[in-house]
Amino acid sequence: MEASDSSESSEATSRWTSIVDAVQKLYDVSVELLSLLQKGSSSEERDEFIRKIESYLEDREQMIKTIQPPYTTEQKTIGMKLIELNKKIDHHIASIKNDIQSELRKLMNNKVSQEKYHDPYQKDTISGLFYDKRN
Fold first, then answer.
1. Rounded to an integer, what is the distance from CA 67 to the centroid of its chain?
2. What is the pTM of this model?
3. Angstrom distance (rounded) from CA 34 to CA 76
4. Rg (CA), the chain
5. CA 28 to CA 26: how far, in whole Å?
6. Helices 73-118 and 2-39: crossing angle, nearest 10°?
7. String of b and e for 85-96 (b: at least 16 CB within 10 Å)?
8. Residue 131: what pLDDT?
9. Cα–Cα distance measured from residue 23 to residue 16, given in angstroms and rounded to the nearest whole number
10. What's the whole-number mean pLDDT along residues 46-71?
């Protein structure tokens, strides 16, 4: 009877430590992601930068799926730190998204401006038309 009790307790202990390890790993990956986001990147290196961010986010997603309740006090403490990290991560990702969107808008405006410069009469404009309302 004692052998089965000790094996059950060792399994429970092993499960508990693996869950705590998973939460700690999630925290560590989140810190690495935040560090990467804070460094930023230049426009030329942006594709590689985004690939790294996606890789970290996918890793975090997989880790989050493995973490199941009940949570220990240690896990709850790490979880509260994770919530704060996620807020910072979300802020940085939103900032990067806004930067990319503004660059896309500038590119589109430049493209339209260049098209108008090369062929100013390409598109019909309404500004010079007169409409007769009698008929």
1. 20
2. 0.71
3. 20
4. 28
5. 5
6. 30
7. beeebeebeeeb
8. 63
9. 11
10. 91
